[in-house]
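The freezer alarm interrupted the setup, so I double-checked each line after restarting. Inputs confirmed:
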Amino acid sequence: MTDGGTNATRRPDGAALVIAVVLAILAAVIFWQTSQMRVVAVYARVGPTTFPYIVATGLAVLAVATVVSALRGSFPARDKDNYGPMFWILGGLLAQMLLLFPAGFSIATGVLFALTAAGFGRRRFWMTLPAGIAFAFVIWLIFARGLQLSLPTGPLESALVSAFGALAASVGAA
Amino acid sequence: MGTFDLLLQGLLAAMEPMNLVYALIGVTLGTAVGVLPGIGPALTVALLLPVTYRLDPAGSLIMFAGIYYGGMYGGSTTSILLNTPGESASIVTALEGNRMARAGRGGPALATAAIGSFVAGLIATLLLAFIAPWVVRFALSFGPADYFALMVLAFITVSAAFGDSALRGLTALFIGLALGLIGIDLQTGQTRLAFGIPDLFDGIEVTTLAVALFAIGETLKIACAPTHLQEQVEAVKGSVWMTIEDWKRSWASWLRGTFIGFPIGAMPAGGADVASFLSYSAEKSFSKHPEEFGTGAIEGVAGPEAANNASAAGTLVPLLTLGLPTTATAAIMLAGFQQFGLQPGPLLFVNNASLVWALIASLLVANLMLLVLNLPLIGVWVRLLTIPKPWLYAGILSFATLGTIGANAAVMRIGGLAFSFELLLLLAFGVLGYLLRRFGYPIAPVVVGLILGPMAEQQLRRALAISQGDPAILFASPVAMVLYTVAAIALLLPLFLRLRGRGQLLGQLATDED
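Predicted 3D structure, all chains:
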């Protein structure tokens, strides 16, 4: 079940080599960005660039050590994960991010809710989507109205709040 | 004024109705997240940071501490009844506790865990109250170089000392340190690594990183796991009360667990999971019934549960007196202090004495509340375990994004597209959290690196400014030398043990989440 190298095979661990490359790129980006900074002479010796250089050096050393570790196959054994559920959940997060401002908090978060539930095998959207939107609207009421947290308001929130307002006014008038 | 008077004054403040309400909310939430698998106290405090922004500082901090204590209580319930630890410090509890539950002794197992947690919480909080002033007196003489050495020690113990690989621990730490570089440099006002994105000028939000790594990373890992384990919730059969025999076998374990857990939390030597594991080994060797271990020995529940609560209290010693977080939860609580413009450390005890002592005293109150919440109301918490996974994780992700949007609700526009940049970061860090888990990297060092990194940088630059750039100042004071020596031992001893084939023990001691 392992797709990486184990101690038994001592095959270089490809994924671990990729991690090493990413760490090296990260170190290079920090070096490059820091060298572009204009530093006032007063801070020439110890200034805003000192710590970034230390961190970048550390990352570079760790990248080399990761290569060694990958070649020796000393990363822990991994199971083969199913990526299907991940696409549902990441799709949900992406949908929420894009829907948040046009559609408001409740609809966007309701979509995230339904897609996450789908990732865990519950694909009956006619049930999970309304449940998610209702749940998110309750959260919105408590946190945006009650605790003054700034959560984006969309057409659904405005409509429901003004409907409640009209209801309260008519009850008050009667 | 003596410690005792200060503590009494703190108790008076803690008994104010609003503070009692905050403590109650904290312990209730804490127990709930402790019970639910997949979310722990670190995540919950992170979620609440933006929510509490407008609330009273003392009340919010009391609530955070209540969540920390509550999480330690709640985790045991899941371990005992489900054999899946609710949070990482309760892994050991599952060994004996779940066996007891299967044998129909779930009630006494839950009771010894709850009473043990209470005893440990009480003793450890009093120890915290009496030790903290001493540490403060000592720490007031610390210079920037000493603080820097202290932070280096914390970095090493959080990342490299425990867990199964120093390389992966340090890598996680440096990812956190790199993320901590992003934003405007406080001393010169220059932006670093922001790539011209305005949302990055203030740096990476602690809430966003912690929520992404803990909630989204964990959700992805569970959703993608190839086999879904058959999980069986054991019903609590029979009496929840312990027999006289149970009491006799538990009390010494509670005390041993307390005195193992507190120092481990107080010295930056790892989190509650390390404490509970050591306590379990101690109980195994001290027990008069060693043959029962593995089949449901009550000592194996009593000791570790006391130890993890005592270590939670111990963690507050370096956090409050030195401003030094040694676990992920403590790191996020530090961010909570900073959100209110408070800087934990010796000066906090001087400038905000009433707040500190109200916080410490309210821990005693919270501890009592937890005993009441956990023993008679155990049935309510067990219900939480029966929520089906799709609904549970859908709910967790909805709440997770709530905190992130609350932390920064700014709109970013690229072309005609309007979206939340903070949610994009959340998505990216969520994938990072999944990858870290998949390849066996610990999560806590990333969070600690993000929060402690900028503080370490400030102390380093302050020290070097005093010496006009001469690095020798870093090793000039005896305090710093001692700290570096301990850090070197913490780094090298595990390497040596691993070479000698003792690495598995360290792997089991992994300081993971909370």
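Quick read of the result. Residues 1-9 of chain A have pLDDT under 50 and may be disordered.
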